[in-house]
Amino acid sequence: MSESFLNHLPEELRGRVVKITSVLPNSLSIFQDVYNFALDEVLESKRKQVKSSTSINGKHGEQDKVEESDIILKLDNVSVLSPLRRKLSLALHLSSTTKKPVLSLLKEDHSIEFSITDLKSSINMASFLPVPEKQGIMYLFVSYKQSNNPKYTEPLLITLNKESTLQQFVNLGIVSSDEKDFKKCVDYLRKQAIITGFRINDPFASESNAFHVDCHRSTKEGVLYFLSDHIIFGFRKPILLFNSSDIESITYSSITRLTFNVTLITKTNEKYEFSMIDQNEYGKIDEYAKKREVIDKSMSDELKAKKMNQSHNEGQSALKEASEQIEVNINNIPMDSDDENDENFEGESELSDGSDDSDEDSGEGSEAEEVVDEQQEEGEEKEEEGKFSIPHNDAIKQEIPVDVKKEMKDLHENSPDVVPADFEDIPIEIDEDDDSGVEYD
């Protein structure tokens, strides 16, 4: 025995033990006891690790099977939507080790895919819920603290086909063969849950005030369930579950003729907005909030200030945009130089030499043309200097035809107010008795 013990020691350590035992021969048995104790501790530690890895709460739990004799109730081929999506069997059964009730999802060979142990303390709430617009299907919703597999954290959601579930209850002899009321199945399931340590609510029974509304959460379409103690949004991941007592306040916004939005604000100041709710649902939601003394902050000073700031910012933005547009339009107006429009100013400026030619009257066309030519030349010289002087219109009179002159004179004789066509001076008669004080030359 001692030889075997020494052979398992490293050479250097074995030499030290041999040296001590050569001086104290009785010490060899002590070393043997120490070796055996250490060996037993190592083996026990390895056994615990193996047991932990194969327990129902570990990775190997998926390979554990439920014995037929341990099954309390099993529904085959139910549609599981969360925390995984698969056709599995729902079972209430006893644990093979603790003999305590367990809620599990089983594969065809009765191996466990998902399970919840310690049902009384692990399940937060469970409820039957209607499926909107599908009378033949019902949801079973279960919120729990933890499962056998850490990767499953979403609530358990199962759809029960009423017809097939009722038929299974008939086959199990739980209800009579002529039974058509699915409520019998619901009542039986609720009783079995109570026996195993938890409660399944049925809030949408005829006497209940629970209701649900269609809505959107961001781009996800879903259903908002208002229960007596909870509010659930589902059933696109992530599924949201609120305790009614945790809702601090509510606001209504984006109100139109057809729809409105609801924002739930928790006591930890988390905000969850649900949009596109039908206007017909407002009364029920508002009554639900008032009964639970939830504060309506739709008209709060904080929200008003926020809306006013938004309106102010929108107004400032509109003014800024208009200002920028005006600036762009002004900048796009062509700013022509004076030399491009000098012809438009002819007849409004004085002669280039500063004299006024209004007293000189040229009746000859050739003389007028010479004056214009000279003034154009002088104007071009001034143009180079940045100044303009265009001759008066009187210096560019044109010869009026004789027949036109005669017609205008005849018109003047009949109508003295009409000026003659040749612009000749018209004698003005002065009333000698006029004592207005105005002198005439």
Automatic annotation (TrEMBL):
<dbReference type="GO" id="GO:0031491">
    <property type="term" value="F:nucleosome binding"/>
</dbReference>
<dbReference type="Pfam" id="PF18215">
    <property type="entry name" value="Rtt106_N"/>
</dbReference>
<dbReference type="Pfam" id="PF18469">
    <property type="entry name" value="PH_18"/>
</dbReference>
<dbReference type="InterPro" id="IPR050454">
    <property type="entry name" value="RTT106/SSRP1_HistChap/FACT"/>
</dbReference>
<dbReference type="GO" id="GO:0005694">
    <property type="term" value="C:chromosome"/>
</dbReference>
<keyword id="KW-0143">Chaperone</keyword>
<dbReference type="InterPro" id="IPR013719">
    <property type="entry name" value="RTT106/SPT16-like_middle_dom"/>
</dbReference>
<keyword id="KW-0238">DNA-binding</keyword>
<keyword id="KW-0158">Chromosome</keyword>
<dbReference type="GO" id="GO:0042393">
    <property type="term" value="F:histone binding"/>
</dbReference>
<dbReference type="GO" id="GO:0006335">
    <property type="term" value="P:DNA replication-dependent chromatin assembly"/>
</dbReference>
<dbReference type="GO" id="GO:0005634">
    <property type="term" value="C:nucleus"/>
</dbReference>
<dbReference type="GO" id="GO:0031507">
    <property type="term" value="P:heterochromatin formation"/>
</dbReference>
<feature type="domain" description="Histone chaperone RTT106/FACT complex subunit SPT16-like middle">
    <location>
        <begin position="210"/>
        <end position="299"/>
    </location>
</feature>
<dbReference type="InterPro" id="IPR040993">
    <property type="entry name" value="Rtt106_N"/>
</dbReference>
<feature type="compositionally biased region" description="Acidic residues">
    <location>
        <begin position="336"/>
        <end position="383"/>
    </location>
</feature>
<dbReference type="Pfam" id="PF08512">
    <property type="entry name" value="Rttp106-like_middle"/>
</dbReference>
<feature type="compositionally biased region" description="Basic and acidic residues">
    <location>
        <begin position="394"/>
        <end position="415"/>
    </location>
</feature>
<dbReference type="InterPro" id="IPR040770">
    <property type="entry name" value="Rtt106_PH"/>
</dbReference>
<dbReference type="GO" id="GO:0003690">
    <property type="term" value="F:double-stranded DNA binding"/>
</dbReference>
<dbReference type="GO" id="GO:0042802">
    <property type="term" value="F:identical protein binding"/>
</dbReference>
<dbReference type="InterPro" id="IPR011993">
    <property type="entry name" value="PH-like_dom_sf"/>
</dbReference>
<comment type="similarity">
    <text>Belongs to the RTT106 family.</text>
</comment>
<keyword id="KW-0539">Nucleus</keyword>
<dbReference type="GO" id="GO:0000122">
    <property type="term" value="P:negative regulation of transcription by RNA polymerase II"/>
</dbReference>
<feature type="compositionally biased region" description="Acidic residues">
    <location>
        <begin position="422"/>
        <end position="441"/>
    </location>
</feature>
<protein>
    <recommendedName>
        <fullName>Histone chaperone RTT106</fullName>
    </recommendedName>
</protein>
<feature type="region of interest" description="Disordered">
    <location>
        <begin position="332"/>
        <end position="441"/>
    </location>
</feature>
<keyword id="KW-0804">Transcription</keyword>
<keyword id="KW-0805">Transcription regulation</keyword>
<dbReference type="GO" id="GO:0006368">
    <property type="term" value="P:transcription elongation by RNA polymerase II"/>
</dbReference>
